[in-house]
Amino acid sequence: MGKNDFLTPKAIANRIKAKGLQKLRWYCQMCQKQCRDENGFKCHCMSESHQRQMQIFGENSDRIVSGYSEEFEQNFLDLMKRSHRFSRVAATVVYNEFINDRHHVHMNSTQWATLTEFVKHLGRTGKCKVDQTEKGWFITYIDRDSETLFKEKMKNKRLKLDMVEEEKQEREIQKQIQMAEQLKAPLESDQENEQKAVPKELNLESGVKIGFSLGGGIIRKEEKGESSSKAARIVNGAYRGSNARLLGVDTEKFCAKVQIEKGVYDGRLIKAIEYEDICKVA
Ligand SMILES: [Zn+2]
Fold first, then answer.
1. CA 51 – ligand 1 centroid, Å
2. Does 227-280 match 61-142 at the fold level?
3. According to CATH, what is the number of the domain 61-142?
4. Helix locations, 129-279, DSSP H
5. Interface predicted TM-score (ipTM) of this complex, two decimals
6. Per CATH, the architecture of 227-280 is what?
7. 33 CA to middle of ligand 1, Å?
8. Which of 28, 111, 179, 202 suits a disulfide with 69, CB 3.0-4.6 Å?
9. CA of 26 to the centre of ligand 1 (A)
10. Is 19 left (phi over 0), alpha (psi -120 to 50) or beta?
11. From the CA of 113, how far away is ligand 1's center (Å)?
12. Can you give the residue ranges of every domain in the chain?
């Protein structure tokens, strides 16, 4: 009997006949047939259609049982969600509501032999919170949808907070950078000017060349001039024969201050040497 046959006259008639909850054990899950009593069930089991169904079951028992188990669990959880979403409730109460629907998947066709076994399964797989009391097992539906929504909300909130925090830090850093820049401002503007000035010169290639050659020329000229005017030779005493540079003269004492250049005494400073002991070198 297919699921879509429930509107046929026969199906309707059967439902009318089967009004009220009948003994669950006279239900054949394989054929989805409710028998009214033991005799009816025996007759059904002898029927060709049932035998055919049982043959199919024998060949695919695992798949069929797991299929019924899945359906049983899903329907049971749907009922929990519908009727006991936010409350802790006795497992037997829910089960009685569940089997009140005559077309429910019967437990004897699932992998669970007893309600207790099924309840433990719900607890183990995290689909319900379960706890055992003197009055039996109690179950509380775990609302995955709400939980997911809640987690999502919290995650977004956290992300938002993180972003706010980051922005705050960013602003703080910017503030510190600005303060540091203000402190450095005079120094930096000098540097900037220098930096600006240098590239300007460098950019004017011809100007740079001129500047360099002129500068070099001037320095060399100066050095030459200096050496020509201040170069001296020591002609008497211990440093006789040494070349020296005239650093200054003491006209009152008729002395000169010289620094020896080259030779073994190179660099030696003589603070006072008499005029007669040196002579200028052209
Ligand atoms: Zn059957």
1. 7
2. no
3. 1.10.10.2030
4. 144-203, 205-230
5. 0.94
6. Roll (2.30)
7. 6
8. 111
9. 10
10. beta
11. 19
12. 1-59, 61-142, 153-185, 227-280
